[in-house]
Design brief:
The complex is a heterodimer of chains A (about 200) and B (about 260). Chain A has a single domain, classed as Class I glutamine amidotransferase (GATase) domain (Rossmann fold), CATH 3.40.50.880. Chain A has six helices and 13 strands. Chain A is globular. Chain B contains ten helices and 14 strands. Chain B has an eight-stranded parallel barrel, surrounded by four helices. In chain B, helix 7 links the parallel strand 10 and strand 11. In chain B, helix 1 packs parallel to helix 3, helix 4 runs parallel beside helix 5 and helix 8 packs parallel to helix 10. Chain B starts with a strand and ends with a helix. The chains are: A alpha/beta (about 200), B alpha/beta (about 260). At the A-B interface, helix 1, strand 7, strand 9 and helix 6 of A face helix 3 and helix 5 of B. Chain B: This is AglZ/HisF2 family acetamidino modification protein.
C-alpha cells in the first residue's frame, strides 16, 4: 500500500492517476490510521514553502509520519516542494523545514534571457549513485521540472543525481529511507512511471 | 540541458474539441478526452487546453471534463478559459492540472497573480496575451476571444505581469491562428526582449522544421501548436499527430550541441 499524504495541499490527483495506472494499491492519508497502515509514503507539494509547511504542521499528521519514517523506517519520497520540506530551511520563506536531510533550499539565479525562471520543461539527470530508485533508467533520463528554488545538500553522500540549469543542483536526494526529487515523476511520461515503480518496490 | 517545449494546444467549445482560424469559425475536431489521451501516448511535452466557450459566455470552467482530461495526461496540463477567481484556480489545480492560464482577469484584477502565487506557486500561474498585428505594424492585446481591445501598451502589460510575479507568458498571435502560415518572428522578437520568464509562442506554425529554426534563434522556448497537430494534408483531414522522440532529437540537434 502506497500512501499519499493529503495535508490540504498538492497535486494529489496526478499521483493517484499514475498509481492506478501502475495497478498499485493506494490510500490518500488524512488521518493517523492511514499513515500507520502504510508501507510507503509520498509527500507532494505545490505553492510556496511557508504555505506548504504551515499546512503540513497544522495537519496533525507530522508526529505519526515521523514515527513511521524513523521507527519503522518506511520509505518516503518528497516531490518538488515536498522535497524542499525535507531540508532545514528555505530562502523562499521563514518557516523551518522538517530537517530530515541536512541541507537548505536556495533560489536559482536567473540570467535574464538565457536562464529564465522558473526552470520549466524537460531536463536531464546526471546520476551519481546507482540507487534502487533510479534503477533501469537511461544514462541521462529526462524529467519534467517546474520550479525556481532548489535543494543544496550539505553532505554529498545524500546526492543521487544532479541537473544543470545555470548551476548543477541536486535533483534527486536521499538519506536512508528518505528520498526527494525536484522534478515531477507523475508528469514525466515513462521515466516518471519507472521511477515511481522503483519507489513502490523499495 | 533544458529542452524547448513542443506543446499541443487544444480548444474546447461546449465540451467539444474544435479548431479556429484567426479565432473564428470553430470547426469540430473530435473528443477532447480521447485526443488528450492520444497526445499523452505520443509523449507530448505539455498540453494546453483553452475553453473558448467558457470565456465567451462567462461560464465557469467545466471541472468534470477537466478532471477526465487530466486523468489521461502523464504530462503537465495548462488550462485557460473563464477563470475569474483564486478558488476556481485552486479547484482546477486539485484536479491534477499543473498550470492555470489567465487572460481577461489580468486586466480586471492583476492582484490575482500574487494571491495565486501564494496558493499554487508562481510556476503554475500563466498569463496569455492574445496579440493582433495592427495595420501600422504595432501590436495590440485583446481578450475575450479577440473581441475586446485592451487599451494599454503591450510592453507595459508585460512589465506589470512580471512585476506581479507571473510564471510564464504565452504569446498567442491571432493573425497566425489556424493559418499554418508560419510563426511571426518579428512579433516573437519584439515581445521576447521584454519578457524574462519562460515564453510560449503560438499561432501559425507551418511545419516541424520551422520549430528547428525558432529554437536555433531563441533557444529554450515553448511552442504551442494547434492546426499542425490536429490536421494533416492540404484538405485539413483530422489526424492527431506529434513528432516522435527521434524527430524531436533531430529538431533539437543544433541546440543540444551548443
Amino acid at each position: 500500500m502506497t500512501t499519499i499524504i493529503d495535508y490540504g495541499i498538492g497535486n494529489i490527483k496526478a499521483i493517484v492517476s499514475l498509481l492506478k495506472l501502475l495497478g498499485e494499491n493506494y490510500c490518500i492519508a488524512t488521518k493517523k490510521e492511514h499513515i500507520l497502515n502504510s508501507n510507503r509514503l509520498i509527500l507532494p507539494g505545490v505553492g510556496s514553502f511557508d504555505n506548504a509547511m504551515n499546512s503540513f504542521n497544522r495537519s496533525g499528521l507530522r508526529d505519526v509520519i515521523e514515527q513511521v519514517v524513523f521507527n519503522k523506517n518506511i520509505p518516503i519520497i518528497g516531490i518538488c516542494i515536498g522535497m524542499h520540506m525535507l531540508t532545514e530551511k528555505s530562502e523562499e520563506g521563514k518557516n523551518l523545514g522538517l530537517g530530515w536531510i541536512d541541507g537548505e533550499v536556495l533560489k536559482l539565479q536567473s540570467n535574464e534571457f538565457s536562464i529564465r525562471l522558473p526552470h520549466m520543461g524537460y531536463n536531464d539527470l546526471s546520476i551519481h549513485t546507482n540507487s534502487q530508485l533510479l534503477k533501469g533508467l537511461a544514462q541521462r533520463p529526462e524529467f519534467y521540472f517546474l520550479h525556481s528554488y532548489y535543494v543544496r545538500c550539505n553532505l554529498l553522500e545524500n546526492v543521487q543525481a544532479t541537473t544543470n540549469y545555470g548551476i548543477d543542483f541536486h535533483s534527486v536526494i536521499s538519506k536512508e529511507n528518505i528520498y526527494g526529487v525536484q522534478f515531477h515523476p507523475e508528469k514525466s511520461h515513462l521515466n516518471g512511471s519507472e521511477l515511481i515503480k522503483n519507489f513502490i518496490k523499495l | 540541458m533544458l529542452l524547448p517545449r513542443i506543446i499541443p494546444s487544444l480548444l474546447i467549445s461546449n465540451d467539444e474539441l474544435v479548431k479556429t482560424i484567426n479565432f473564428k469559425n470553430p470547426a469540430y475536431i473530435g473528443d477532447p478526452i480521447n485526443t488528450s489521451k492520444i497526445f499523452s501516448e505520443f509523449e507530448a511535452d505539455e498540453l494546453l487546453i483553452f475553453d473558448i466557450s467558457a470565456s465567451a459566455n462567462n461560464m465557469s470552467p467545466n471541472l468534470e471534463l477537466l478532471e477526465k482530461i487530466a486523468k489521461q495526461c502523464r504530462m503537465p496540463v495548462c488550462y485557460g478559459g473563464g477563470i475569474k477567481s483564486v478558488k476556481q484556480s485552486v479547484d482546477i489545480v486539485n484536479l491534477g492540472i499543473e498550470k492555470i492560464a489567465l487572460s481577461s482577469i489580468l486586466f480586471e484584477d492583476i492582484n490575482i497573480i500574487q494571491k495565486l502565487n501564494e496558493k499554487i506557486g508562481s510556476q503554475s500561474v500563466v498569463g496569455v496575451l492574445d496579440v493582433k498585428v495592427n495595420a501600422n505594424g504595432n501590436y495590440s492585446i485583446l481578450t475575450d476571444n479577440g473581441k475586446k481591445l485592451i487599451d494599454k501598451d503591450p510592453v507595459k502589460i508585460c512589465e506589470e505581469l512580471q512585476q506581479f510575479g507571473i510564471g510564464e507568458i504565452i504569446i498567442n498571435c491571432i493573425d497566425g491562428d489556424g493559418t499554418k502560415n508560419g510563426i511571426n518572428l518579428n512579433l516573437l522578437s519584439y515581445f521576447s526582449q521584454y519578457i524574462s520568464v519562460p515564453i510560449t509562442i503560438m499561432g501559425g506554425l507551418s511545419s516541424i522544421e520551422e520549430i528547428e529554426k525558432i529554437v536555433e534563434k531563441y533557444g529554450v522556448i515553448g511552442i504551442g501548436v494547434g492546426s499542425l497537430f490536429v490536421y494533416k494534408g492540404q484538405f485539413n483531414a483530422v489526424l492527431i499527430n506529434y513528432p516522435s522522440k527521434d524527430e524531436k532529437r533531430k529538431i533539437f540537434k543544433k541546440y543540444l550541441q551548443l
